[in-house]
Write a structure and sequence with these properties.
The chain is of the alpha/beta class and 611 residues long. It is built from 19 helices and 27 strands. β5 and β6 form a beta hairpin. Bound molecules: 5-amino-5-deoxy-1-O-phosphono-D-mannitol (M6R).
Amino acid sequence: MCGIVAYIGHRQAYPVILKGLKRLEYRGYDSAGVAMLNNGLHVYKKKGKVAELEDLLTGKDMNSSIGIGHTRWATHGEPNDKNAHPHTSGDKKLTIVHNGIIENYLQIKKELIQRGHQFSGDTDTEVLIHFIEEIKKQNQCSTEEAIRVALKRVVGAYVIVVLDVDNPDTLIAARKGSPLVIGIGKGEHFLASDASPIVEYTKEVVFVNDYEMAIIKADELILKNSSNEIQTPYIQKLDIELAAIEKSGYDHFMLKEIFEQPQTIFDSLRGRLDAKGGTVILGGLREYTTSFESAQRIIIVACGTSWHAGLVAEYMFEELTRIPVEVEYASEFRYRNPVIREGDIIIAISQSGETADTLVAMESAKEKGAVIFGICNVVGSSISRTSHAGVYTHAGPEIGVASTKAFTAQLAVLCLMALKIGHEKGSIPHKRYLQLLHELEAIPEKVEETLKLNDAIKKMAEKYKNAHDFLYLGRGYNFPVALEGALKLKEISYIHAEGYAAAEMKHGPIALVDENLPVVFVATKDAYYEKIISNIQEVKARKGKVIVVVTQGDKNIPALADDVIEVPEADELVAPIINVIPLQLLAYHIGVLKGYDVDKPRNLAKSVTVE
Ligand code: M6R
């Protein structure tokens, strides 16, 4: 999704902004632009990559200690130069960058056209800056006041940063529903959509809240609420290092993040799991353990890969806590007027913590009185702040658009939660509880071992890279793993892939099977093992190409398979954390072999902040 970077201080703004925009590239975008004040306002913008914008600006005088920059992911209006941000008011005095969507922009545009405004592009953002200009003119007020008035009329979500030629020492920012971080330096401020453009300059940050406006000078930050009352900024310390957002020698962030998983899973469990002592400590759960124990129902809301983590959690929670669980696409849940009863708990799962559908789904459930529990990776994100309580996954920044380490960290945390609640509730036999704690503790090491399959999987990728379709099948805990494997492949290799519950195959997808169709089974030793062997045979009988993830030492399946991927043995409840690793690697290698940009796949955005 769109990204914002802005700077005011004693440095040259342009290099800071350019580097920041590059750091935000992972979010997905189709055009980029910057605006600087240097003897007047200079706006440069271009469809395409930040590097193309950089080429355009080579040799230009970019001298300025204040500036704003943007990467745009098109919503209103096609991706082209004129729709790229920044957008400028009719009198060329104000310029704006904006993330989000102004839903009522057409009505406002109509009114502005009647007043003589002319627009060069098709975006809601251009309408907003003209609207601010018009209010300023009508009310003879300051830019700050005009922005406040304009935002009261606006329906939708936004983060904006405005640069005003007549106030060359001030940036004005405001947010509702989209994230904005302000980094505080010595005599300088950095603004960005997330912390990645800021972390190399300062660790001190303020996460701007919804309906707040920030008036920022080099050495002053004033935060105000929508009633124009001054708020005390809550300064937090970032706990990420620069290395976490760089490739560190890997060809791609995705590969780096796949290989980080032994450590990131360990980090998710660190200080929380003590298998020897038989304890699970989850600070975020403490005040809500009894709510969970007496819960009538858990509803999990999420999107994409996080939704798949929710599906695995459904199996875990129902088995260990005996609380009924429903897993919902947040985008469906939010519009469906769902029945929320007393005693229902909502768990919202999100890597970014900014996914608009998930955020709105949880907000509407909150209004209906539900307890909201958030599982997020990004500290200080909107979802974590909207939750009553929650647990961070601690996987570190995930830059690759295809989620990998965040998924396994989500599973680790969800498993811990189910174990904690089940143990407190008395719904897990003590022996089983202790056994699972040890199983979970052993996961980082088993993931490390699984990663040794990388070269073998690369060879497999070579063999299957030209397939037009893939089918991924699993049962029980491995069914969501199959869904996730298919999602990974289609995201980064653009090969059509379907994930199915293996037993569902005979109700339709089996019609696809022929000698050209690779079918990936996730068939490690679990309660469904014998059943899935029958499904493998059904595919084999129709000449499908069978690739199977099996438990090390499996004696039955290799004879049926074209290719076998052997993973370490693990209890079925924690096995998804291991079994997904080869599927991530397979997708990665196929994507790379096909020559695609696996870190920034076409059309995708890292955090989907629009509905
Ligand atoms: O940040 P979130 O976990 O809320 O994001 C949800 C999905 O947009 C995300 O998982 C998406 O499906 C990824 N591209 C999957 O790799």
